[in-house]
Write the structure tokens for this entry.
Amino acid sequence: MATDPRGTLPGRILRASFARPGLTVLVVLALAAFGAVSLRNLRQDVFPDLSAPIFNVIVQNPAMGAEELETAVAIPLEVALAGLPQVRRIRSTSQLGVTQVTVEFEPDADYFRSRQYVAEHVARVEGELPPGTDAPLVSSLTGRLNEVFEFTLEAEPGSADLMALRDLADFDIKNRLLAVPGVAGVERLGGYLRQFQVLLDPDQLVARGITLDEVQHGLEGASVNASGGFVTQGPMEWAVRAVGRAETVEDLNNTVVALRDGTPVLLGDVADVREAPAPRRGDGAPAPGRGGELPREQAVRRGHRAGGRGRARGHRGTAPLAAAGRAAARRL
């Protein structure tokens, strides 16, 4: 049996609209105005964040193997984090010296509150970790999908080495980029980390009767400043401070590590102190035209859900980043 279309809901709406055309026009205009206002206030972003809240808890203990870390570190952390609200899954991976626990929340979970829950529960377990274990590190409020800007630092051959480029990235460009509103983190990849290296000579240690503990104790006190109080002279007060921080290789070479028969034994007598790059782990593709050297690369990441309507208009959000990079390049 055929159904009369006039008795259906769309048919009744059409009949009512034609019966009252003035009211129908007003309703349509009101709905159009509401839609226009809602569209203008709609959250927009050039780089929308579609990821669920995921946090990594990284714990290091160089003296422990994968099995020991799994038993003494990973399992207690998983048990402490299992009761968090809106947790979807928890997994962990362990290898020599380091373990990582990954906590994944539901997509509708509040990002900042979830990270606060993770940090609070990790702090409760920290006191139960084995001796010699570093403090747990909770991942920041950024992820791979939050990356908005990536660039490399390169220099003409002979003008700057990879250690100089890393120093520029760590102490200049990074600080400038972090000052840009909306930037939550800056990651540096490649280059050479500058450090003072002490290469002990076993023969000299045995000949002079120096132990490793004496060398370590001497190094720990070789770069320390001390306060000497103050001296009052009439209406003026002078602060007294002993400056002992080592700044050059020569300062470390002149560090006294022990006394033998009233004669000071210097660090330079038992070790070769040099300023050199830290040992690199892993491998990467060599940069073309740079003699197999890797350039210094930086990745700028914004805060989680930090975008707004202003970021949806072109690429204005990257303009302050480019300005900060140009300013650092002029310094180089």
In short: Confidence is low (pLDDT under 50) at residues 289-294, 307-317.
